[in-house]
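=== RUN LOG ===
request id: a7f3
mode: sequence -> structure
chains: 1
length: 692
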Amino acid sequence: MSRMIKIIGGIGILLIALLVAAVAMLKSMDFNEYRELIAEKAKEATGRDLTIAGDLELNISLSPSISVDGVTFGNAKWGSDAQMLSMDTFAAEVALLPLISGDIQVKRVVLKGVKVLLETNSDGKPNWEFDIAQMENEGEASSSSDGGSLPVVHTLQIRDVSLVYKDGVTGDTQNLSLPVFDLSASSSSSPMQLALEAMINNEIIKISGNLGSTDVLSSNKMFPVKLDVAALGASINLDGTISSPREGKGVNMGFSVTGDDFAAIADRGMMLAGIEGGAPLPAKAFSIAGALRDGDNTYSVDGLRLKIGGSDLGGNLSINLSGSVPGINADLSSEKFDLADVTVQSEGQAAQSDAAATSGTDDGRVFPNDPLPLDGLKAANAEINFSGKTILAQGIELTDVNVSLALNNGRLSVSPLEATFADGRIGGDINLDGSNKTAKLDLKVTASQIDYGKIYKANAGDEMIKGKADLDINLNGAGASVRSLMAGLNGKLRVKTENGYIDSGALTFVTGPLVALFEGEDAKTLRCAVVDFDIVKGMANSKATVFETGGLSIVGEGKVDLRDEKLDLHFDPRAKNASLASAAEIGIVVTGTMKEPSIGPDMGDVAMGAASLAAGVATGGLSTIVGMVVGAASDAADNTDYCALALAGKPLKADEQASSSGSTDSGATTEKKTEEPETNAIGGVLNNLFGN
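=== RESULT ===
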């Protein structure tokens, strides 16, 4: 036994002696002799030059380490700089005992003062794509194919990294600095812990969390990701997997983003991307969440949930990049969405709008002559379906909204377009063909039983107006601008209401003798109101314009020239009570332009000599004319049922009983019999209508 102990002791002493000798030998070696060999092997692997300017230093211990200063790595031949990478210091610490079994475990790698240049050439080729010389001898097998596993790096620490990215296609340049980058794992099969702090255009971005193991990454298997990101004033959480991490494909990533100020975050994001200005957005808290997935040239967000202010939006959307233009598909819904939560007019925009309204470029027209942005219709193809329970837009509330939009090669179709508004139902179809230089529009909108009394109450707070209306619009035209579209417009517009209620208090211009026309419950009954226009080549002709209560009929005729935006309309009031006929004897004409309409009395209804009228206009204007006007009063009432005619689509012809009292048919209106002047009545009417 003692002899065995002596033998073992001798072997131990021998091993210690050999270890001491090995350490002494290693310490005596000059590892700088291997710099050229290292550079040669690096060039064989990458085709680039590796230069080590400083000394290689070896520290022998239970955790041997090596360090070197002044390392550079060459760029692609076409690169804008000779070096792709340079670093001030590189240090690595290796676990000694695992080396005995051939297991290389790097306990720690430290890089300091790293500068990286990433760029692409004009063809989009990146400089991190190496031109490696391949073996061409078919019979020669690679001896390195079974060379063992890659070294395990437990901790990677990078400090003071400066990264520049140059896009050779667009010419854009981005700068990134990484003050802190720590990546660590206890083993090759353990998850990696990440802590990163980056600065881009003075914006600090912090990322922390867990990633998959190096074994998973090297085998290109399902790679888990769970990260927390703080950037731009927002908090971002990522939790999911990447099935092919080396190619960056097979993404299935849940995400959530929250922030307290949507406007500030968007502004900072645009500045980060190098975009100046931008659309103004509301300063409201928001959150967005969903699952991001990719496929064959497709990206999708499933289970989208967006909340901003008091609004919400959810659903699924995807984009397909395999075609000549992106293809977008979306199915979205909302419980409540207020456009005020996502739009706001900045002070600059308001000032710009005011300046435009008063600038010398105003040509006095309502319809703009700017070319329609038809190219935008060709930028993508899309199929979007949206349903909303409540939609708010500038005080207008729509419920049960259902919209389907299709965009294909510049042709936009919206069908159906459905919503409930003021307890009535709106439906329509819109087709805009922007595939050519001249757009073609086909628009159909119908509305049934819209409660305008409810709308009035919401704005005025009382119930002086009640009733429900129907709307029918059917228009088509072609043009390269809104103005040219309107100039060639064809179709019809019809609005009607029956059995409503209107109080004179709701009509602020009704005072004096005109009030009597609305006295009594029968007089306040709105029997009907009809506006019916036929539109042919930009000329809107009144087919029927009627407003009738129990005590008054107003019959209109005329036209609206959409080509030149000129107005030529006449409204003829008729009392149904003979005692009030004089109060409703003066007609109203609307002339001028749509931009600047002119409203005044119909002088054909005023018993006045031409010379006196001219003198009144020249000396005193409208107030003098009012004082001089002599009404052509009639004691005859007009009991024609204009409502029945207008609703049936018949010509507005006065009945024979009305004609026998001195009126004859004149198309939509009737001529009036001139009696003795009633200056007080007519003068009062004009004064009340047009002021002084």
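=== NOTES ===
The longest strand covers residues 105-119.
The chain has a mean pLDDT of 78.
=== END ===
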